[in-house]
Amino acid sequence: MVTVGIDPHKRMHQAVALAQDGTRLGKPLTTASGPQAVHKLLAWARAQARGGPVLWAIEGGPGLGRAVADALLGADQQVVWVPTRTMAAHRRLSGPVGAKSDVIDAVAVARAALAEPDLARHRIDPAVRQVRVLVDLRQDLVQRRVGLANRLTAMLHLELGLSTAKGRLSTRTALERLEHQITRAGVEEAVGFVLADQIRELRVLIERIAECERALKERLEPLAPGLLAIPGIGVVWAAVLLSQVTDVSRFSSSAKLARWAGCAPIPVFSSGRQRHRLHRGGNRQVNRAFHSIAMVQARSCGPAREFVRDKEAHKGRKGAYRALKRHLVDVVYRTMIADQQQRQAREATQEVYGPAA
To answer: What gap in Å lies between CA 29 and CA 36, rounded to an integer?
Structure first.
């Protein structure tokens, strides 16, 4: 089998082919980014593999290389994702000391795929893709809302001496209250115009975020009913978990999901002393989701409060919350497996009997 490593960029992709023993085959290929590059990549890879199978390894998560990965999968190719840290480690091991280039990175990507057979495989699920696109849109809208709220808060402080917290500018009620305050303050015409314009834009963003969340809920209810039923998991965090994990069955156990999410402690045993340290890697979006769910459960869910109280005695408060996160990974893993099995059974039934009337 020939392994092709791809270093993806916005406007171009760099590809290098390696034989099974790690030696380079032919010349590297530089091609334009996007799905239109697939025909050129396939023709080049077939020439290197001489009709044999090809494994495509792409650096990073489903980001810059997502379009070409989708197109390769549509052409019945095997595609795996190589984490950037893994690529960097192989570049330091096998590349020239201190050197870095697109070709060197692509070689490191391919060598990482040769050395680690359990890398995450790329899969396409149309329903999960819709959730992922909506999650990306909501994140963009929230970032714009936060930036605008920060600018509005600063202007209110400078012009009116108001110290409105930025978190209070995330609801329509808070904006209406703020408009009344500005009206009573009697600000200058130009200042009032700028403030009104920013408030109007904030109101539009808040409404668009709400529409996005309604669309997410509509798509999530048939996909992840069990996940939505877990205390502390709302529409947003359920959508993040589903869009990032995608096919949960690619993890053979909850321990592997916990390590991928950065929720599992890392063993650092030495000289007969057994201890662990915090894992600062992993998927940070999923890690943040588990952290937020744990915080909500610790405040409002009785069993979670008892769990944290029991662990605090010998782990401390932070250690207790980390233990709760790790426990939540087990719960979420079992729930996502059950949701996925129910969905597959429902789809299989529809294929045989057709959709329900």
So the answer is: 15
Instruction: Give the CATH architecture of domain 2-115.
Output: 2-Layer Sandwich (3.30)
Mention every residue, 6+ apart, whose C-beta is less than 8 A from residue 249: 337, 340
**How far is it, in rounded angstroms, from Cα 45 to Cα 28?**
10
Report residue 353 as tokens: 């009997």
Cβ within 8 Å of residue 196, ≥6 positions away = 179, 182
**Strand pairing partners for 266?**
277
In which band, very low, low, confident or very high, does the pLDDT at 215 lie, cut at 50, 70 and 90? very high
Do residues 335 and 293 make contact, with C-beta atoms less than 8 angstroms apart? no
Q: What angle, rounded to 10 degrees, do the helices at 189-223 and 302-353 form?
A: 60
The arithmetic mean of pLDDT across residues 15-41, rounded, is 88
Q: Is the pLDDT of residue 105 over 80?
A: yes
Report for 74-78, 222-226, 303-307, 346-350: range of highest mean pLDDT = 222-226
CA distance 258 to 326: 7
Residue 8 bridge partners (DSSP): 13
What residue type is assigned to position 325 of the chain? K
Domain residue extents for the chain = 2-115, 126-222, 226-353
Geometric angle at alpha carbon 171, from 167 and 173, rounded to 5°: 120
Give the contacts of 166 (CB within 8 A, at least 6 positions apart): 146, 149, 150, 153
How do residues 322-341 score in pLDDT, each as one tens digit? 999 999 999 999 999 999 99
Asked if residue 230 lies in contact with residue 335, where contact means CB atoms within 8 angstroms, the answer is yes
Burial of 164 (0-12, 13-18, 19+ CB in 10 A): middle
What pLDDT, on a 0 to 100 scale, did the predictor assign at position 356? 56
Half-sphere exposure of 133 (CA within 13 A, CB side): 10
- Mean residue pLDDT across the chain: 87
